[in-house]
Structure prediction request, 85 residues.
Amino acid sequence: MEDIQAKLQNYRTAPFDARFPNSNQTRNCWSNYLDFYRCQKALDAKGVDTAPCDWYKRVFTSICPISWVQKWNDQREEGNFPGKI
Prediction:
């Protein structure tokens, strides 16, 4: 757990992700947004600390346009979010 905390403290921007080698990072943004909320949901269900999920949030906030994140957050709150979390 300390290793994860250290990585989060030293985090600056999204690292290279081999799943998304192209310069267009739209899919990377979307995947990390979904992964963050999936991670939180899974760890909450187990009653475990959700701190490891913060990595995904830092990545998507680094590469996603703020307007997209706000729109997705609004859609999740309204119950019409298109992604499966």
In short: The radius of gyration is 13 Å. The chain has a mean pLDDT of 87. The CA atoms of residues 5 and 35 lie 18 Å apart. The chain has four helices and no strands.
